[in-house]
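Minutes, methods subgroup
Present: GH (chair), OT, SY

1. OT presented the first of two proteins processed in the latest run. Sequence and structure tokens recorded below as shown on screen.
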Amino acid sequence: MSSILDISSLYDTYSYNLNSVSGSSLQNNLNSVGSSSDDEKLMEVCKDFESYFVKKMIEEAKKTLDNEDEQGEYMQYFSDTLNQTYADAIADSGSLGLANQLYESMKTTYNL
């Protein structure tokens, strides 16, 4: 049965679209999981991916706001850090469940 989230195509798409430092480190973590079947490491990578995904969603959502010009100098400077903090908090809370779903799918699909 094909799942809505096809992990192999997601991995291929993701590996070709790595342009940021956090994306590169996430890719390295994912590659290291392939060589070892450590469950904790796999879950960490899944949470990192969820955090990366949520951060990108936050950044795209903020582009739709009209108040970008009204932000202060400090808010403009630290907005990336704030977005990452929000993304990490959302991923750590487990409220989306993307990391858990990805973890279970990878365990099943790749017999890790």
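2. SY then presented the second protein from the same run.
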Amino acid sequence: MSDDSKATIDEFLDVVNMTPKEIESWLDTEESQSVGQKDGDDESIGHKSGKRIVELLQKKKSDYTDDDLSHMKKVISYVHRHTAQKPSSDIEDSRWRYSLKNWGHDPLK
């Protein structure tokens, strides 16, 4: 595995601060399903990503594919970009937090 791949995996594991079980439980909530951009169907891009993140967290590092690493980079980029847009109001019950949780990151952790 290349150094670049290791760095991507490490950063992915750093920004995703929810466990697979926490993500799965979250994805089952109405709040999770109420946010995010939909791409032609009923499920948002972030919600689909959350399912993929659970799969990635349950995989052995040695089994990661180039497509897996590409998705990890997408998650890293989204979390960094979205956390920079933190609202000034209460975030606990905000769409901002709900979107981040769909991507495996709870800003209140």
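Chair's summary of item 2: The CA atoms of residues 39 and 77 lie 19 Å apart.
Next meeting: continue with the remaining queue.
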